[in-house]
Design brief:
Length: 221
């Protein structure tokens, strides 16, 4: 009886942690990043360096070398080292900027802006997950693509961006009639090495190929 009292809170915590969104992650350089064959890891409520989902207005992998690069946008620099602490979800505001569509292809850019009064760093991909208008999880497959991640230092007001790409025509795992997938209401984004998400409104329509989104690592700007 005493053992059951000890285990029940732990089981409840696992249940809550596993229900934030559903999906999988394919890492760049894993050797199996094709849409037809993927090595995936669970993307529910783990830290975003190894898993995937942003709340607008609140609110990793890879290595780099060398010093600050020239030509970085105002408020952000790219560096291989430093002592500035990482950006936490509460330090950041998220937004989504639509890109120019192609034939059956869609593009957008996730932008994370430092709204805190201190400088902080971002490195890697973080996590992403689609949800519907009610906040229920939708299928999401995060495919992390090149280039290699670098550390981006965000001064107050500075921003970092990550490029997204997905298909707008039905593919493997999609419905053969009507929309290929349910229409998302928001994109949940977890900044690199964080666990709390930001929620950004999604107005880009369904994400085909079972919710597969190619994501580049965050870069300055």
């Amino acid at each position: 009886m005493r053992l059951s009292r000890l285990f029940l809170p732990a089981l409840a915590l696992v249940a809550v942690a596993g229900c934030s969104f559903q999906g999988s992650v394919t890492d760049a350089g894993s050797g199996s990043s094709s849409s037809s064959s993927r090595t995936t890891t669970s993307s529910s409520a783990a830290t975003s360096s190894s898993a995937a989902p942003v709340t607008s207005g609140s609110s990793a992998g890879g290595s780099s070398s060398g010093g600050s690069s020239s030509g970085s946008p105002a408020g952000s620099t790219t560096s291989g080292s430093g002592t500035t602490g990482r950006c936490h979800t509460a330090d950041l505001a998220g937004s989504l900027q639509p890109g120019s569509p192609g034939a059956g292809q869609r593009y957008a850019t996730v932008v994370l802006r430092n709204t805190s009064g201190r400088s902080c760093t971002i490195k890697g991909y973080g996590g992403i997950g689609l949800v519907n208008a009610s906040g229920a999880a939708l299928p999401t497959h995060q495919n992390r693509v090149s280039p290699s991640p670098t550390t981006v230092t965000l001064r107050p007001g500075g921003s970092a961006s990550s490029q997204l790409h997905w298909a707008a025509v039905p593919g493997t795992g999609d419905s053969t009639s009507g929309d290929c997938q349910p229409t998302p209401g928001a994109l949940q984004v977890i900044p690199p090495d964080e666990t709390a998400p930001l929620s950004i409104p999604w107005t880009q329509g369904p994400v085909c190929e079972a919710g597969t989104i190619d994501q580049q690592p965050y870069a300055a700007g």
